[in-house]
Design a protein that fits this description.
With about 110 residues, the protein is mostly helical. It folds into two domains: about 60 residues, no CATH class; about 40 residues, no CATH class. It is built from four helices and two strands. The two termini are about 20 Å apart. The relative contact order is 0.16.
Protein backbone atom coordinates (compact mmCIF):
# COMPACT_ATOMS: atom_id res chain seq x y z
CA UNK A 1 0.00 0.00 0.00
CA UNK A 2 1.23 3.45 -0.89
CA UNK A 3 -0.12 5.99 1.61
CA UNK A 4 -1.34 9.24 0.11
CA UNK A 5 0.58 12.33 1.16
CA UNK A 6 -1.06 15.73 1.47
CA UNK A 7 -4.59 14.39 1.16
CA UNK A 8 -7.18 17.18 1.06
CA UNK A 9 -10.94 17.59 1.22
CA UNK A 10 -12.77 16.70 -1.95
CA UNK A 11 -10.29 13.96 -2.83
CA UNK A 12 -11.35 10.32 -2.85
CA UNK A 13 -8.60 7.80 -2.17
CA UNK A 14 -8.98 4.16 -3.20
CA UNK A 15 -6.58 1.52 -1.91
CA UNK A 16 -7.11 -1.02 -4.67
CA UNK A 17 -4.39 -3.34 -3.41
CA UNK A 18 -6.44 -4.12 -0.28
CA UNK A 19 -8.18 -7.10 -1.89
CA UNK A 20 -4.84 -8.67 -2.81
CA UNK A 21 -3.52 -8.05 0.70
CA UNK A 22 -6.62 -9.73 2.19
CA UNK A 23 -6.10 -12.80 0.00
CA UNK A 24 -2.52 -13.04 1.26
CA UNK A 25 -3.69 -12.65 4.88
CA UNK A 26 -6.35 -15.34 4.49
CA UNK A 27 -3.93 -17.82 2.93
CA UNK A 28 -0.91 -17.13 5.16
CA UNK A 29 0.47 -20.25 6.85
CA UNK A 30 -2.44 -22.49 5.88
CA UNK A 31 -2.08 -26.17 6.77
CA UNK A 32 -1.06 -28.57 3.99
CA UNK A 33 -4.20 -30.66 4.42
CA UNK A 34 -6.83 -29.23 2.01
CA UNK A 35 -9.80 -29.88 4.32
CA UNK A 36 -8.12 -28.24 7.33
CA UNK A 37 -6.85 -25.39 5.16
CA UNK A 38 -10.39 -24.74 3.87
CA UNK A 39 -11.75 -24.68 7.42
CA UNK A 40 -9.00 -22.33 8.58
CA UNK A 41 -9.52 -19.96 5.66
CA UNK A 42 -13.29 -19.98 6.22
CA UNK A 43 -12.81 -19.21 9.93
CA UNK A 44 -10.50 -16.29 9.04
CA UNK A 45 -12.99 -15.01 6.47
CA UNK A 46 -15.83 -15.12 9.01
CA UNK A 47 -13.85 -12.85 11.36
CA UNK A 48 -13.95 -9.95 8.88
CA UNK A 49 -15.20 -6.93 10.79
CA UNK A 50 -17.01 -3.83 9.57
CA UNK A 51 -13.76 -1.85 9.25
CA UNK A 52 -12.23 -4.46 6.96
CA UNK A 53 -15.50 -4.74 5.10
CA UNK A 54 -15.45 -0.99 4.37
CA UNK A 55 -11.80 -1.25 3.25
CA UNK A 56 -12.77 -4.00 0.81
CA UNK A 57 -15.71 -1.94 -0.46
CA UNK A 58 -13.34 0.98 -1.02
CA UNK A 59 -10.96 -1.29 -2.95
CA UNK A 60 -13.76 -2.70 -5.10
CA UNK A 61 -15.05 0.79 -5.89
CA UNK A 62 -11.52 1.85 -6.74
CA UNK A 63 -11.10 -1.06 -9.12
CA UNK A 64 -14.32 -0.09 -10.89
CA UNK A 65 -13.11 3.50 -11.20
CA UNK A 66 -9.70 2.35 -12.44
CA UNK A 67 -11.34 0.25 -15.17
CA UNK A 68 -13.57 3.14 -16.19
CA UNK A 69 -10.58 5.49 -16.45
CA UNK A 70 -8.38 2.90 -18.16
CA UNK A 71 -5.80 2.96 -15.36
CA UNK A 72 -3.37 0.11 -15.82
CA UNK A 73 -1.02 0.59 -12.85
CA UNK A 74 -0.80 2.36 -9.54
CA UNK A 75 -0.29 4.59 -7.72
CA UNK A 76 -2.32 6.88 -9.94
CA UNK A 77 -4.00 10.22 -9.31
CA UNK A 78 -6.87 11.12 -11.63
CA UNK A 79 -7.82 14.75 -12.27
CA UNK A 80 -11.36 15.57 -13.36
CA UNK A 81 -11.71 12.11 -14.90
CA UNK A 82 -9.59 13.33 -17.82
CA UNK A 83 -5.93 13.15 -16.88
CA UNK A 84 -3.89 10.79 -14.74
CA UNK A 85 -0.52 11.14 -13.03
CA UNK A 86 1.19 7.82 -12.33
CA UNK A 87 3.80 6.94 -9.75
CA UNK A 88 3.16 9.78 -7.31
CA UNK A 89 1.34 9.52 -3.98
CA UNK A 90 1.84 13.15 -3.00
CA UNK A 91 -1.30 15.02 -4.02
CA UNK A 92 0.45 18.41 -4.12
CA UNK A 93 3.24 17.11 -6.35
CA UNK A 94 0.75 15.42 -8.66
CA UNK A 95 -1.36 18.58 -8.78
CA UNK A 96 1.71 20.61 -9.76
CA UNK A 97 2.52 18.15 -12.53
CA UNK A 98 -1.10 18.27 -13.74
CA UNK A 99 -1.07 22.07 -13.75
CA UNK A 100 2.22 22.09 -15.68
CA UNK A 101 0.69 19.72 -18.22
CA UNK A 102 -2.37 21.95 -18.56
CA UNK A 103 -0.05 24.88 -19.20
CA UNK A 104 1.74 22.84 -21.87
CA UNK A 105 4.93 22.48 -19.88
CA UNK A 106 4.95 18.75 -19.14
CA UNK A 107 3.16 15.45 -19.65
CA UNK A 108 0.80 14.26 -16.85
Amino acid sequence: MNPVANNADGITVYYIDRIDRLQKELSKDLPADPVTAKQTALHRFQRIDSHLSSELENAANGLVQAMQYGIDRYPAIVFDGKAVVYGITDVRAATQRYQQWQAGEARP
